[in-house]
Specification:
The chain is an alpha/beta fold. The chain has 9 helices and 10 strands. About 40% of the residues lie in helices and about 10% in strands.
């Protein structure tokens, strides 16, 4: 089940139409302008068009990514309150649209320390869940590359948040290959078996609801987040074979977040090229 993060410019349903044109099985979107705190409510027409095209395309496991403005670990009480309010709205929008997976970066502790930061994330999520009690959407904590004071660059961080929240069943995990690699997890070739054992020992494979399949412009353990096209970075084409062949991930969305441009040689969309590469590994 492959997809890509696609633009909602001109209407949310346009992302679905683009996914159809490119031959994807699902899609990831922002449900609002991710660079703004405020957002207009979702109108009936928007929701109706989205639902109609999802039904036609049989896209049941779509994905949304929350705003990058959100920091549920912020030591600034005002910013954390704004983040909680916006994340609650992100959940409501996913519920209205029937999007079952909402991906979020755990946040940054901003110098307060990882333990304090992780506890703040869990407390913030508890506040969100209290505001939005219906559990039709799974919040997927995304592994991060670990830049700056970002939390979530260890699987243990994600496990801790899930353990601390009052409603752990409302949380899942999103594994991003570029982030994993930059954070120091080597899953290439025979090393995948060791990685899978570590995954099972920390969060459990069943917690993984979404995969982000991106190559990395930066080498192993550099803790720098830079995405590249499949096979063009340090992970390499073969590094993706274990993920796409892992039966545990067969029925979860595998989303590309690679640069949106065209190959200068062929003139083809890179999304189409990357999709072809991934399907060729199955």
């Amino acid at each position: 089940m492959f997809g890509s993060h696609l633009s909602i410019s001109g209407g949310m349903h346009n992302a679905l139409l683009e996914a159809e044109k490119l031959g994807f099985d699902t899609v990831q979107v922002f449900t609002k302008n991710q660079q703004q705190w405020n957002c207009p409510p979702l109108g009936e027409e928007v929701v109706g068009q989205w639902a109609s095209h999802c039904k036609r395309l049989k896209f049941k496991k779509t994905v949304s990514h929350d705003s990058y403005l959100i920091n549920l670990a912020s030591p600034d009480e005002a910013l954390r309150a704004k983040s909680i309010a916006l994340f609650a709205e992100e959940l409501r929008r996913c519920m209205a649209l029937g999007i079952p997976n909402l991906v979020t970066h755990p946040g940054a502790h901003m110098g307060e320390g990882e333990e304090v930061g992780l506890r703040r994330v869990a407390a913030s999520l508890d506040s969100v869940h209290a505001q939005v009690p219906v559990d039709g959407v799974i919040t997927c904590l995304e592994i991060t590359a670990g830049q700056g004071s970002s939390l979530g660059y260890r699987l243990e961080h994600l496990a801790t948040i899930i353990e601390l929240v009052k409603e752990p069943k409302r949380l899942g995990v999103c594994l991003d290959t570029a982030h994993l690699f930059a954070a120091g997890y080597d899953f290439r070739g025979r090393k995948y078996a060791k990685f899978r054992k570590e995954l099972d020992a920390t969060i459990g494979v069943r917690a993984v609801r979404v995969l982000h399949l991106n190559d990395s412009k930066k080498d192993l353990g550099t803790r720098v987040d830079r995405h590249d096209h499949i096979g063009k970075g340090f992970i390499g084409v073969e590094g993706f074979r274990p993920f796409v062949r892992d039966e545990a991930f067969a029925n979860i969305p595998k989303i590309l977040e690679t640069p949106k441009d065209k190959d200068p040689e062929s003139g083809r969309e890179w999304d189409a090229i990357n999709l072809e590469t991934l399907r060729g590994l199955m």
